[in-house]
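Look over this record before class:
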Amino acid sequence: MKMETRGIQFDHLLVYKTTQLRENWQDGVFLIEDLILAEGIYQNGPVFFSVVPSKGEEKYGDFTYYLPINGAVRLEDEPDFHFERNFYVEEALVMRQADQALDFYAAIDQLKDYANEQNITIDDIFYCVLLEVYGDIIIDLYIPIRNRGDLA
């Protein structure tokens, strides 16, 4: 797989945070997509999420799901969701179509090995951007390079 270095930026995001089993990563995607249908919110970019390993529990992760939308929203009846104006990572290691590995967790290991070989210091967090193309999902995997940009 080809490794690249690039940034990522989105504006106007609906955000949902949860701790869950790592294998259930799709649950948050479905939840946020159901919410926008119910609330009539217009999606204008791909769903993506971050995962940070939960302390002391390898099977669990702290997930944050992001959905780019057309503008600011207030969801008073949905306390688990909030709005963020922007998201920005200046520089990250990137692998396109990360699901061609055994799973995207295996792709993360490939990126970490590459970072070690290249003496690149990376953060513990990673982002999976889910791009829908002709009915299939392409996964772009981003691992931020340490001290090269963060949530704005």
The chain has a mean pLDDT of 87.
